[in-house]
Amino acid sequence: xxxxxxxxxxxxxxxxxxxxxxxxxxxxxxxxxxxxxxxxxxxxxxxxxxxxxxxxxxxxxxxxxxxxxxxxxxxxxxxxxxxxxxxxxxxx
Length: 92
Prior knowledge:
Oligomer: single chain
Largest sheet: none
Helix content: over 70%
Order of helices and strands: HHHH
Strand content: under 5%
Distance between the termini: 34 Å
C-alpha cells in the first residue's frame, strides 16, 4: 500500500496530469482506509477549484488579467536566474 507521503504527491500530480490506472487504484485503496489523506484530497480539490474560479471571470473586468509580455519575460528571467544560482550552490 502507498504511504501517506506518496499519496500526497500523487494527489498533487493528479491535478497536472492523468494518473495511471495503477496509481489511481493505489490512491483509492489508501483513501478508503486513511481519513487524513481523504481529508487532504478534499482540501486539495477545494483549493484547485477555487483557483480555477478565481482565474475565470464571471463578468467583464473580473478575474485576474493576463500578464503583459514584459512582466512575463521579467518573471521567467528571475526564475531562470534563481534556478541557475541553485545549481551553482548544489555540489555534484
